[in-house]
Amino acid sequence: MSTPAKESTGLRMGRPFGIPVYVSPTWLIVAAFITVSFQPRFADMLPGYGESATYLVALAFAVLLYVSVLLHELAHCVVAKHYGLPVRRITLYMLGGVSEIEREPETAGREFNVAFAGPLLSLGLAGIGALVEAFVVPPGGLAQVLMWQLWLSNLIVGVFNLLPGLPLDGGRMLRAAVWKVKRDSGTGTMAAAWVGRGVAVAVVVVPLLMNLMAGQEPAIGSMLWTVVLASFIWLGASQSLRVARVRARLPQLRARVLARRAIPVTAEVPLSEGLRRARESGAGAMVVVDHDGHPVGIVNEAAVNATPEQRRPWVNVGALSRTLEPALVLGADLEGESLLDAMRGSPAPEYLLVERGGEIYGVLATADVNRMFSGV
User: Fold this and answer.
1) What is the Cα–Cα distance from 79 to 2, expressed in whole angstroms?
2) First and final CA of the chain: distance in angstroms?
């Protein structure tokens, strides 16, 4: 699965295929849980081994499971790189792995291929491992148990990720299918996200009903684990819904429409005088210019609001302005994703909008852009 880029908080393990791989400290939590949960099973399978040895075998299973997750995520990343998509890193954490692919595929077909690559590799490794266990490894003993671990871990990773709901790979495949049919990626995201919420509920309800129908008490540990997994799926699906709603509003995001009219003022003008001029002109922003009329700064709205009214005649607008760096100057024609990308590149409360010839058009306030997406 992929997520927006974020800072790593784990131990860097290497760079396979040029992709940095990190392991989060939260992995230790689930490794301990898997080790304790599976040790009794391995003790039954290896009666000739002592308790310490079967704990080591259970720990090996936990490690192999995460090696399987790593190979799964690498498959996504290799296909993504094949399509020219930038891959920032892979992070292994408590609930699995995250491939940070920084841009979405441009077509439904590529989206499907990137998503399917992970489960395909996992299920392929599971099949190979099962054949090796059945026909190559001698029955009984540690070798057979280790091979069983190998193919079972890949089977778990492959099947779980094929569940048809975001944020799982099966959800991305469903998204791609709906995208292909409806010719709209947003519709695909909405459909796969709602199915993801249904999958989250089923992950808890189905095992509970099966236990009740069999007349068995649900195991507390297993129920806790299913609730954690269901919460992960529900939160991921909900985040996908929010992203889809944001993207649905992107066509309305135009710098020209959201721009505030701005008046030019020199740095030594008192704030009270600058505000008076802005009110008279019906402007919502002030741009600091030098004596040749070239813009050199933008007066910060938050700083203006924080200045008490009685002090405004004694504070110059230059003291409340931010120096106009090149990244804070945006084209007035920017809109949609391009506008958001430009703002993400240099986060700031205000930006100067200019025409193609360099003439000042107005000021774009980040607060105005955020209001467009409030309630999403």
Assistant:
1) 13
2) 23
Contact 73, 4 (CB under 8 A): no
Catalytic residue numbers, as ranges: 73
Instruction: List, edge to edge, every strand of the sheet that includes 350-354.
Output: 329-331, 350-354, 360-365
User: How far apart are alpha carbons 34 and 32 in whole angstroms?
Assistant: 6
For 255-284, the pLDDT digits (tens) are 999 999 999 999 999 999 999 999 999 999
| Cβ-proximal residues to 213 (8 Å cutoff; 6+ apart), any chain | none
CB atoms within 10 A of CB 358: 9
Spatial distance between the Cα atoms of 177 and 191, rounded to a whole number of angstroms: 10
Whether omega before 326 lies within 30 degrees of 0, making that bond cis, reads no
Q: Binding site: which residues?
A: 72, 76, 169
What value, to the nearest 5°, has the Cα angle with vertex 185 and ends 180 and 189?
110
pLDDT at 10: 77
Report the CATH fold assignment for 255-372. Answer: CBS-domain (3.10.580)
Q: Which residues pair with 299 in a beta bridge?
A: 321
- For range 179-204, the mean pLDDT: 95
Domain layout of the chain by residue ranges: 11-249, 255-372
CB-based contact 287:360 (threshold 8 Å): yes
CA 96 to chain centre: 14
Q: Which long-range contacts (CB under 8 A, 24 or more apart) does 170-174 make?
A: 170/115, 170/119, 171/195, 171/196, 171/199, 171/237, 171/240, 172/1, 172/111, 172/112, 172/114, 172/115, 173/112, 173/115, 173/116
Non-local (6+) Cβ contacts of 14 within 8 A are 20, 21
**DSSP code string of 348-364:** -SEEEEE-TTS-EEEEE
Binding-site residue numbers for Zn(2+) are 72, 76, 169
The 10 Å CB-count burial string (b at 16+, else e) for 97-115 is bbbbbeeebeebebbbbbb
Spacing of C-alpha 56 from chain mean position:
34
